[in-house]
Design goal:
The protein is an all-alpha fold. The chain has 15 helices and two strands. β1 and β2 form a beta hairpin. Its main location: membrane.
């Protein structure tokens, strides 16, 4: 079996999935939906306290908990699905399924107006599951479409295209929300709801490109028997191999902690600006625009740093900067200060995401074809870190009444991640025993 690892058309198609699905992460997760959600629930319920399934809870806390729940759900069943995908050669099939689920849920958010808060929360949870569920299979294609010496730059290219594509759609949405009458909308709220519909259409439409070019079953796997049972065996085999991969274990610990901070900032930065600084929606979205533009440069900058100094140095530099960002955010009191912090966040956000993915790819044994199963552990680590990070952020806000205190907790997560990262050796990769490898 031979894989063509120098086909730029396949690499570009793989990067196009970042272009297609990153609009969800930007429009739904980071900008328009959080601001819209806070606004319409506050207007309908007459304050920050909302009624959800008979419970009274702060709207931003409910949103934090819903994010935690969605990632907990995907963390529970993605390993088994990845095992099935590896055993049956079904990575692209599962990539399609989660894309369809996520895109449909984004379109459903068009009908959320604040009075139907259950619809809004449940649709956002399903969209999150679709997005995060697709990533484990998407990421697993990286070792199958290019050579290891290009992991850093190809991963960076994917994230850069994602930032660029989502920025284009966000700019259009921002214009339509600011000038709704230009597009025939009654108000900015109607334009916001239309933005959610556009995300679903964009995500699904551009995904057709990678669906066409990515290999369907590159290792010619021919499943026989019960898929669930064999999927479980695949995951168990990969889990057992971790005992022979100390560098991977240490890296996953480091990634677990620093990713808590990275993802929580991405998910809840807009609500921080809205609640703590009372910034209007257009300024919050402008902040995210700044982050997106800088993130493109950051992705390539730290890919270069990694090429020259290695992944360990590159990631360590970024984690230290993230620690300073969290400490600085505690003292932010003005829009200008918020913009400065956002610029720094953008610089390290693109870099740390792309380099985390490529660094893990380098730690996967070279003689394995179970890439989805290995990436499922990366994915579970990522999702559990998001669950704990967003839950802790919401819990600290609920107990102390301030999001500022939550930012200090994020700094602690980054410090722990840095300590484990310093113990990780990216230069020595121990392969599993022969009978464990294919």
């Amino acid at each position: 079996m031979n894989l063509n690892l120098k086909n730029n058309k396949v690499v570009n198609a793989w990067c196009m999935y970042d272009w297609s699905n990153s609009v969800y992460n930007l429009v739904i997760t980071s900008t328009i939906f959080p601001v819209y959600y806070s606004s319409v629930t506050r207007n309908f319920f007459g304050g920050e306290q909302v009624q959800f399934l008979g419970l009274t809870i702060t709207n931003t806390v409910l949103y934090s908990y819903s994010i935690s729940f969605s990632f907990l759900a995907i963390a529970l069943f993605s390993p088994l699905l990845s095992g099935i995908a590896d055993y049956g050669g079904m990575k692209k099939l599962f990539l399609r399924i989660f894309t369809y689920i996520g895109a449909a849920a984004c379109i459903t958010l068009y009908f959320f107006d604040g009075s139907n808060i259950e619809l809004g929360i449940f649709a956002s949870i399903v969209a999150s599951i679709g997005y995060s569920g697709s990533l484990v299979f998407y990421n697993a294609f990286l070792p199958e479409i290019t050579t290891s010496d290009r992991y850093d730059i190809v991963s960076a290219k994917g994230y850069a295209m994602g930032y660029a594509g989502s920025l284009l759609l966000l700019l259009f949405n921002l214009i339509s929300i600011t000038f709704p009458d230009w597009f025939g909308f009654a108000n900015g709220g109607a334009a916001s709801r239309f933005a959610f519909l556009l995300v679903g259409v964009w995500w699904l439409g551009f995904s057709l490109i990678p669906f066409h070019y990515l290999p369907t079953n590159p290792y010619n796997r021919k499943p026989a028997g019960k898929l669930l049972a064999h999927g479980y065996k695949e995951v168990r085999k990969v889990f057992r191999s971790l005992k022979d991969l100390p560098s991977m274990r240490r890296y996953l610990k480091a990634f677990f902690f620093y990713n808590m901070g990275v993802q929580t900032v991405m998910f809840l930065a807009a609500t921080f600006g809205d609640k703590e600084l009372k910034l209007p929606g257009e300024k919050l979205i402008l902040t995210v625009l700044i982050i997106q533009v800088v993130a493109v440069a950051g992705s390539y900058l730290f890919a270069y740093v990694s090429k020259v100094k290695g992944n360990k140095i590159s990631l360590s530099i970024m984690v230290v900067i993230w620690i300073l960002v969290c400490l600085g955010a505690y003292f932010v009191t003005s829009a200008m200060q918020f913009y400065v912090v956002a610029t720094v966040v953008g610089l390290v956000m693109g870099g740390i995401q792309s380099q985390s993915r490529s660094a893990f790819s380098k730690l996967i044994p070279e003689n394995t074809i179970d890439h989805a199963s290995y990436f499922s552990f990366y994915d579970v680590t990522e999702k559990l870190s998001i669950v704990i990070g967003t839950f802790a952020y919401g819990l600290i806000e609920q107990l102390t009444g301030s999001m500022r205190n939550s930012t200090l907790a994020l700094a602690t997560f980054f410090i722990l991640g840095l300590l484990f990262l310093r113990q990780t050796n990216f230069n020595v990769i121990r392969l599993p025993k022969a009978e464990e490898a294919r």
